[in-house]
Write a structure and sequence with these properties.
Residues 137-171 form the SAP domain. The chain has 793 residues and is α+β, with helices and mostly antiparallel strands. The chain has 34 helices and 25 strands. The protein has a five-stranded antiparallel beta sheet with strand order 24-23-22-21-25, covered by helices on one side. A four-stranded antiparallel beta sheet has the order 12-13-15-14. Strands 3-5-4 form a three-stranded antiparallel beta sheet, with no helix packed on it. The two termini are 25 Å apart.
């Protein structure tokens, strides 16, 4: 724990502390800290600090690098001087760093940085380690320092500290170093300039460092370069700064790069959103329905092959881009999952619930999945799309690029669109400079293409849907592997914009005497699903056209419709012409002239009377038995269940090898009855939907922590208190309980009344253990005398 950070935290008022905690929700996640010293440890966590840095724009990161270069004497004034700007220009960005606990001021105004900051940059501002780290290393003894001092024209008397001070004074002074370089061999200045501006570490020819009179040997003898390996040399920080000269200032870019714009019509953008959003929901439903009929097999190496994608494209009428994007989004939304018995990806029970939701809810599920998806469906590498649903090694970075692109577009007004892709990439890189620049340039066009298909971007600007999603940010995105429903789906702004995006979807069609149905505008998902079941889609776009045929009507009857129910639903969507009514009635009249029966098992016996008795047995009615011949019964239930039911009824059947058992995929396991499209009734298990935990309330935690003083923890007293009060525990378990207190380890405790709890982060208070209880999700008190056992958690 950093004592400087703890001291600064004690000076913050409630408002400032709440602002800090709002920017660092990781520090108050459960089990939330109860004291400022615990909060300070969390704020200084290496991984957490690096995660925060990834979300910062360029100016605060430039300030952090400058602070690393300046070192212990860094303060606001010194920082402004090094950056070549006024203190007023630096202070707002410093406050931003303070609000993220990446830097904080000491009582004397000096700036302190989180420990992990230095680990991110090994060469801040392109500068190497301080000169002291080379002069005070084991590779350079006192005799070597004396030789270097004589070469620099300095006195060689005194101890090591005095020699280091003299050498540092010369090599850090630009004027004295310039005078020294006038005595250097030809080529030395150009050699040193390469290290000063393009270093600090460069590959070299090791032989030249031992060649008399060479620039390399002269630079090494005078302490300007240090060879860490035979072919690797480095230049110290102070030397490089002196060579760069007194006019050098570290880069500082407080203003984002200019992003050229072109005017757009907000109404046209809104219209395009209202076309794309219903279409995305409609196409996602079509893809899921298709996989419900034909499982989507995976390649041996993972992912869905090109051949299967093309089959889906042909059967659903989706474009290849739509199929790639929506298949991956549906998988992240847990609407698709691998089913080993089925041999591929099939819709999940969450899909059964999703298809019954209203259209805006279905759209938000897709948007939330895309927002946290760790792959880019439409990113081209070497001119080819990636394999659908194949792992992407840059997945986390791809998600961050998506967030940064939409956040950058959100800065444009609604009536303006970006003018060029290079300018957009540059603006995004200013907002998220730690992202890989080449990967950003490769993914940016793909992000925009995906966003257009989902109705988030139109005419190269954000739609209302896109702005609502960008306003949520990355904090509520959730993890791709998380089974919980992300908070994105319930965000009020996204709820409002999704309702608006789908409000213009058409719920009626124009039925023609030529057996066509035309929908002028984006069709509602319900209407599109109905027409897809009863007709063949011929075109889509500004107007969608379906054509009815005997085969398409028969397909609807196969799905569970009757002639009356199909005509009733079609009539609700528009006025039906007489030819269409005749077609439906005619197909229905001939429907079922020939039947094909599937049975679960066959029961055979030599006694016709016995089989007739079994067929009429009331207790066996649920088996669906029917007499095919005097000695043959057909049953609807599988063989195993039929066998058990016959035995329960007092018969003595024996199983025989046969192939009559039907493999039923996604068989319901109890639940409630729901009505599916086409009048079908299915049993749906109540989906186990886990909502994401609400984010911690910064104000509540700030109110509790404000003004709190760090309490010293006397480790030596822990064991004495536990040994005196936890008398039910053996010595080894008392030690484990001590680790719960002193090191915050996790353990399972049992009380004398039999209650158990998983605890961590304990404190001793007046004969009780006050610890975090995972089952309760809060801190609880456990009397030490009542703890009967402790085991490792």
């Amino acid at each position: 724990m950093d004592d400087h950070l703890l001291g600064w935290l004690t000076t913050l008022d409630e408002d400032r502390l709440a602002r800090l905690l709002a920017n660092r929700p990781d520090a108050i996640a459960a089990p939330w800290p109860r004291r400022l010293d615990t909060l300070a440890r969390r704020l200084n966590d290496t991984f957490a600090v690096m995660e925060v840095m990834r979300g910062l724009p360029l100016p605060p990161l430039e300030i952090l690098q400058a602070c690393l270069v300046i070192g212990e004497r860094a303060n606001a004034e010194e920082l402004a001087r090094f950056l070549g700007v006024t203190t007023a220009e630096v202070l707002p960005w410093l406050d931003d760093l303070f609000d993220h606990a990446l830097a904080w001021p000491g009582p004397d105004g000096r700036l302190h940085l989180a420990g992990a900051v230095a680990r991110w940059w090994t060469a801040p501002c392109g500068l190497g380690d301080p000169l002291l780290s080379y002069l005070d290393s084991w590779t350079l003894n006192t005799d070597g320092l004396r030789r270097m001092s004589r070469g620099l024209g300095l006195a060689s008397q005194g101890g090591k500290r005095q020699l280091i001070t003299r050498i540092t004074g010369v090599l850090s002074d630009a004027d004295r170093l310039s005078a020294l370089l006038r005595q250097a061999p030809d080529g030395t200045v150009s050699l040193l300039d390469e290290f000063a501006w393009d270093g600090p570490v460069r590959g070299v020819d090791g032989n030249r460092f031992v060649a008399p009179g060479s620039p390399e040997q002269w630079a090494a003898d005078h302490g300007l370069l240090y060879r860490t390996q035979w072919d690797i040399a480095e230049m110290p920080r102070e030397v490089a700064l002196a060579l760069r000269g007194p006019d050098y200032h570290a880069p500082f870019t407080p203003e984002p790069p200019q992003l050229g714009t072109v005017p757009v019509d907000p109404e046209a953008v809104d219209h395009q959103m209202c076309l794309a959003a219903p279409h995305a929901v409609d196409r996602a439903a079509a893809l899921l329905e298709n996989t419900d009929k034909t499982p989507l097999p995976l390649l041996k190496g993972g992912g869905v092959g090109v051949r299967e994608v093309r089959r889906v494209v042909k059967e659903t009428g989706c474009t290849e881009e739509e199929s790639r994007l929506l298949l991956e989004a549906c998988a992240v939304a847990r609407l698709l999952a691998l089913d080993e018995p089925a041999g591929g990806l099939v819709p999940t029970k969450r899909f059964d619930a999703w298809r019954l939701e209203d259209a805006p809810t279905r759209l938000r599920a897709l948007l939330a999945a895309w927002w946290r998806m760790e792959r880019s469906s439409l990113r081209r590498t070497a001119g080819k799309y990636p394999t659908v649903l194949c792992d992407d090694p840059s997945g986390e970075t791809v998600a961050r690029i998506r967030w940064a692109v939409l956040a950058t577009l959100a800065t444009l007004p609604p009536d303006a669109a970006f003018a060029s892709m290079p300018e957009l990439v540059q603006a995004v890189h200013w907002r998220a400079p730690l992202l890989d620049r080449d990967l950003l340039a490769e993914c940016c066009p793909a992000v925009l293409a995906e966003a257009r298909l989902l109705g988030l971007v139109a005419s190269d600007t954000l739609t209302a849907l896109g702005r609502a999603l960008a306003a949520i940010g990355s904090a509520s995105a959730g993890d791709e592997q998380d089974e919980t429903v992300p908070a994105v789906e319930r965000a009020p702004g996204l709820v409002e914009s999704s309702v608006h995006a789908l409000a213009g979807a058409q719920r009626t069609a124009l039925f023609g005497a030529d057996l066509t149905a035309v929908v002028t505008g984006p069709p509602a998902a319900e209407l599109s699903g109905l027409l897809d079941r009863a007709a063949d889609r011929e075109s889509q776009g500004a107007a969608s056209v379906w054509r009815f045929s005997p085969a398409s009507v028969r397909r609807a009857l196969d799905a569970g419709y009757t002639a009356d129910s199909l005509l009733e639903e079609l009539s609700a969507a528009g006025t039906l012409p007489q030819p269409l009514t005749y077609l439906v009635r005619d197909v229905a009249r001939r429907y079922g002239e020939v039947t094909v029966t599937t049975v679960g098992c066959i029961i055979q016996g030599s006694d016709p009377a016995l089989l007739a008795e079994i067929a009429g047995h009331r207790r066996l009615a649920r088996l669906g038995l029917r007499l095919l011949a005097p000695t043959v019964l057909a049953g609807a239930a599988p063989a195993a269940r039929t066998l058990a039911a016959l035995r329960d009824a007092g018969y003595a059947p024996v199983p025989v090898d046969d192939s009559g058992e039907i493999a039923v995929r996604r068989e319901p396991q109890g639940g409630r009855l729901i009505l599916l499209p086409g009048g079908r009734v299915a049993e749906l298990e109540e989906p186990h939907v886990h909502l994401a935990e609400p984010p911690p309330d910064p104000r509540e935690h700030a109110r509790r922590l404000a003004g709190a003083l760090a309490e010293e923890r006397h480790t030596g007293q822990t064991w004495a208190v536990i040994g005196r009060l936890a008398t039910r525990l053996p010595t080894a378990q008392q030690s484990l309980l001590g680790f719960v207190v002193d090191r915050g380890v996790r353990a399972l405790i049992t009380l004398s009344d039999g209650l158990t709890a998983t605890i961590s982060h304990g404190e001793l208070r007046r004969g009780v253990l006050d610890a975090w209880c995972e089952e309760a999700g809060d801190y609880l008190e456990f009397p030490l005398a009542e703890i009967s056992s402790v085991t490792s958690g």
